[in-house]
Protein: Gamma carbonic anhydrase family protein
Organism: Alteromonas profundi
Amino acid sequence: MALRTYQSIAPKTGSGCYIDASSVIVGDVHLDDDASIWPLVAARGDVNRIRIGARTNIQDGTVLHVTRRSTQNPDGHPLVIGDDVTVGHKCMLHGCQLGNRILVGMGAIIMDGAIVEDDVFIGAGTLVPPNKRLESGFLYVGNPMQKKRPLKESEIAFLKQSAINYVQLKDEYLAQP
């Protein structure tokens, strides 16, 4: 079963969501309309909350988790992902905040307290250290990440198109008998 309750808190999904049966979605996880969760994704909203925006896709093998609340950090670090975000295969997002229209390249890691503004490309294999802020309109690459260059207009347009492509794909999956 992909959706699991933790301490009486069950995941919630908006309309038109797709969640692959091989994924595990636990606890305080909310998916907005048309979001998609692909094979082998693990999302554990056990010690804090996870929010996934509309038309956002989380691709195969990605791990989504949070940081618990503590005396030093009373709110902990929830994981908040905006609308129209594409998270590539085998990423790790831990207690960070992602805005809208972002592409997270395959194998990228984004750590606790990091904030990614709208309209950002994060290259494959990039490590975003804790508490970093990625400015809107740029490409970030490397380990640790570095601001590489401003995005081209065609790249900014692709951010939205990538999300649209995954909405179409999840609709095809949902239409199968």
In short: The chain has one helix and 20 strands. Residues 3-175 form a domain with the UDP N-Acetylglucosamine Acyltransferase; domain 1 fold (CATH 2.160.10.10). The mean pLDDT is 97. Residues 121 and 139 are 5 Å apart (CA to CA).
